[in-house]
Amino acid sequence: MFDKYIVCEEGFTAREDGGVVEVRMPYYRGLTLSMVEAVDLVLDGKPVPSSRTTFTVHGNTYTFDQLPQVTDDRWEMGERAQLGFTTDEPLAAGEHDVTVVVRLRISYMPVPGGGRDSKRLTLAG
Amino acid sequence: MSIKRGVSLYSFQEEYFLRTLSLEDCIRVAGEIGAKGIEIIPEQSIPGYPKLTDEFVTDWFGWMDKYGTHPVATDLFLDTKRYPNRWLTLEEQVASVHQDIDIAVKLGATIIRAIINTPPEVMAAAAPYAEEKGVRLLLEVHAPFHYEHPWILQHLEVMHRTGSPALGLMPDMGTYVKRFPRVVSERALRDGAKPELVDLIVKTYDDHGDSHALMDIVNYRGGGPVDFGLARQATHYIWSDPKAMLPHMGLIGHIQAKFYEMTEDLTEYSIPYDEIVPVLAAGGFDGYLSSEYEGNRHIQDVYPVDSVEQVRRQHAMFARLLGEEA
């Protein structure tokens, strides 16, 4: 329902070992993190394994192994979370194709919720 | 007593999500529109839920005073699947509802929307606490459910058996979709649905024909994922005579006034409020028509979303149907 807003156009930055892309949840309320089943990243056509990504909301950073146990913190509606990732090579300057797929476990829905968004982003200087 | 007008802040979700309207802005525009009764989804609008700070509560009542609005209802979600490997126990589910009752009380609301997946036994177990706290737990009657559906019948059995004044119903007007919402079929076309299948789905729905096998027929006609999605929608909306609410009027405490598209001539394209409001009036309903705009997600790919204008139009329609002075 908010798929087109998942990948934020701002906030895409490089780090020494990878980068950060800002992401929003495509849902109309906040969710406890244990119900965020996946925030999968595909960078320039290559899936980044979840073991190489981290998830940060309002300053709290989690691995995707930890997320299923986190029942006392939430991803708020419309909140920009930081999806951190490591890469083998430093990110090249310029544009990159970023796809993010979010999968949410929403109790009243018989099938997983979530959504997918792809954008071409330019690394912030 | 007469029917009152309000708004669920769910209606402004697009603007709130994008932070073009703050929570205070949402309450201000509701007041300006004349939707004085405020319904809030705490999990949507209150960062840090389930904790409510004293500062938030002070701001909340301050906004109500400032904009001439008043708290009416909150919504609860029951996250039975909170843990990945197990379902919440009955005790945990009841505790979750109790927590939401406490939040409603702090916000000054006396009505709680209990989401459709709330089990009847949880409603029964939570009723005494709701009674003690002076709030009503109203089960939303949401499409595709209706008053003869076994799930709703189980709830009705609990309501009648316990006779608890804290339990009741909150009909969602998405159960009175007479015409297929065109914002939905037009979106499907933009997303690549086959026009002949869209026609078939919309016509089947609008004729109130047999929609049960639509997914199969779409399959036989070579439909793709977008066509399947639309066919599923056609089985998720329902139409029945709004008079179906009359026998249950004693239990009905609040109305989710769902809408998809208010046209420029101030009518809802698919939901006949001119048939619904007289039924509520005839039944002696004196609660709130609480706007629930849900069209944003169907138009945001090509049009700017203006939820405030959509809610304003719905309230102009309500004022007319309720015979309020212009």
Could you describe the 3D structure shown?
The complex is a heterodimer of chains A (125) and B (326). By secondary structure, chain A is an all-beta fold. Chain A has no helices and 11 strands. In chain A, the strands form 3 sheets. Chain A has a 5-stranded antiparallel β-sheet with strand order 1-2-9-6-7, with no helix packed on it. A 4-stranded antiparallel β-sheet of chain A has the order 5-4-10-11, with no helix packed on it. Chain A is globular. Chain B contains 14 helices and 8 strands. Chain B is globular, with a radius of gyration of 20 Å. With 326 residues, chain B is of the alpha/beta class. Chain B has an 8-stranded parallel β-sheet with strand order 6-5-4-3-2-1-8-7. In chain B, α7 links the parallel β5 (136-141) and β6. The model of chain B has no long low-confidence stretch (mean pLDDT 97). The relative contact order of chain B is 0.14. Chains A and B meet through β3 of A and α1 and α3 of B.
